[in-house]
Amino acid sequence: MRKISRCFALTIGLALCTLTVLASDEDAPASKSPSAVTPTSGESWIHHLHRSFGDTSMGKTGRLGPPPPASGEDAAGWQMGLLPASSPENITLHGADLYRLNCQGCHGEAGLGAPPEIHSVIDPVRATSVPLILARMKKSGMDMSSGAAAELARQSQNALLQRLHSGGEEMPSFSQLNDAEVRALIAYLNQLAGVPGAKQLTVTETPARVGELIVKSTCHTCHDATGPNPSSQELEDGTIPPLETLTTRVDQMELIRKVTNGAPITMGTPPTLHRGRMPVFFYLSKSEAADVYLYLTSYPPSQSVAPGETIAGVQQNADGTAAGGGAAAAVSTPPPLPAPAPPVQTAQALTPTTSDGIPDWVVTFLLVALGGAVATVIAGGMGFAAYELTRLGRQGEYHNVVSTGVEKAKRRHRNLVAQ
Ligand code: HEC
Ligand code: HEC
Questions:
Q1: For residue range 49-99, what is the model confidence (pLDDT) as tens digits?
Q2: Does residue 118's CB lie within 6 angstroms of at least one atom of ligand 1?
Q3: Please, what sign has the CA dihedral across residues 68, 69, 71, 74?
Q4: How many alpha carbons fall within 13 Å on the CB side of residue 267?
Q5: Which atom of ligand 1 lies nearest, measured to the CA of 46?
Q6: Which atom of ligand 1 is nearest the CA belonging to 160?
Q7: What's the pTM?
Q8: Binding site membership of 188 for ligand 1 (Cβ less than 6 Å)
């Protein structure tokens, strides 16, 4: 095992690893639907980071809910005439919707995030565009070959895909997204960042899948999957009720109201009505909130997975969910050699290289792995490096992202191989 992973940086090692991973992927049970819906498990992202609710901007791009109603009033007015339900039909989502369901809770509508904690997505996305890289160089009076720009763009694209699959230091992983979803999301990110020629793609989802995406990406930021149902005193003390308790604490209508409009909550001893602390996700529709309820009732949250199961889950995902892992594989490993399953093809299509197949990809990957970034920057001239640093104002962080990505890919690889 060790030997194989040490070979990682070598072409031969890469090929071996690919085969190993491929073989283990093939062992994983095939799943029935392109987006196998799975329960949410494990602690919330803020618990994972050991951060308290008051200590972070994560999940908080919504606004606060209304104050508690004067005594005697109730929520009837809000409910009247409204019977939102989870749509019985499949739903067509645009890339913008995927952004809304998955990213907006932290990065906001415009993608700017909440610096310094939550970085903007705009610059990293613009860095994936050859025309934008060239335009920037030109503007600063520097020359860069389109080949060098293409190489830079490819590295940025890899970093972006890698980030979606593995998350960041403080950003959760989005390995639950399948290949089609990643593709549509990235197309929209390009649009959001003003990349020329970007246009939106759509995906078709079941209502439960919509609920799953919202819960895993947004609600799970603050709500643990499982745990005891807090008392009203514990609520006052800051406990956030776990996801598994929500569908017994509230009914469908109350959940929709809490999410899309905000609702007061009884806290303290003796229990009294308080204005909620949870942000209102005004950008989610009532039927999307109904999908959340549907998902939480049909796929009850589960305990955290044991370490051994995690890998299996990842593989199953890579295999089953039309390549949530396909995107993953596209990033952390070269694309699979044979192309028997659709995920494989889509994974290839997703890779930043054109459809030239493996050799190109291996070359690209190696370039990244072997510090191609540095070589390219040197080739582009020291001026470019200086320009990049000041322009992006991120002091070399860009390259950190690339190398962190590569480190992660290696680690993931070793884990897979070790299994
Ligand atoms: C729970 C909050 C959270 C969610 C949800 C989230 N992010 Fe992030 N994201 C962060 C944080 C925090 C950072 C900065 C720290 C880090 O890199 O880990 C970040 C950084 C990034 C960066 C890198 C910015 C840079 O400077 O290089 C990109 C790109 C990004 N996010 C894209 C996305 C996309 C796309 C989604 C939706 C699929 C998403 N994020 C969802 C919290 C989040
Ligand atoms: C930024 C953190 C945060 C996020 C993200 C978040 N919640 Fe909450 N949620 C809370 C807190 C804190 C409470 C308890 C206090 C309150 O009412 O604000 C709560 C309470 C609730 C309650 C009320 C339970 C009751 O007994 O009345 C429901 C329902 C709920 N959340 C659903 C959701 C859903 C669904 C999502 C995803 C769309 C979500 N939450 C996302 C922080 C969050």
A1: 999 898 889 888 777 777 776 655 555 555 555 555 667 789 999 999 999
A2: yes
A3: negative
A4: 16
A5: 1
A6: 29
A7: 0.71
A8: no
Q: How far is the CA of 110 from the centre of ligand 1 (A)?
A: 13
Atom of ligand 1 nearest to the CA of 167: 18
Ligand 1 touching residue 171 (CB < 6 A): yes
Which residues, in sequence order, are bridge partners of residue 76?
Answer: none
Ligand nearest to the CA of 188: 1
Q: Is 217 a pocket residue for ligand 1 (Cβ < 6 Å)?
A: yes
Could you say which ligand is closest to the alpha carbon of residue 48? 1
Domain ranges for the chain, please list them: 2-418
pLDDT at 414: 55
- Residues of the chain under the 70 pLDDT cut: 1-35, 69-86, 304-419
Joined tokens for residue 154: 């490819």
Ligand 2 atom closest to residue 58's alpha carbon, by position in its atom list: 1
What does the alpha-carbon distance between residue 96 and residue 92 come to, in Å, rounded to a whole number?
A: 11
Cα(310)–Cα(32) distance, integer angstroms: 20
Residues 301 and 15: their CA atoms lie apart, in Å, by 38
CA–CA distance, 92 with 287 (Å, rounded to integer): 13
Place of tokens 């093939």: 26
Q: What is the pLDDT of residues 281-330, one digit of tens each?
A: 999 999 999 999 999 999 999 986 544 443 333 333 333 333 333 333 33
What are 35's two structure tokens?
A: 């987006």
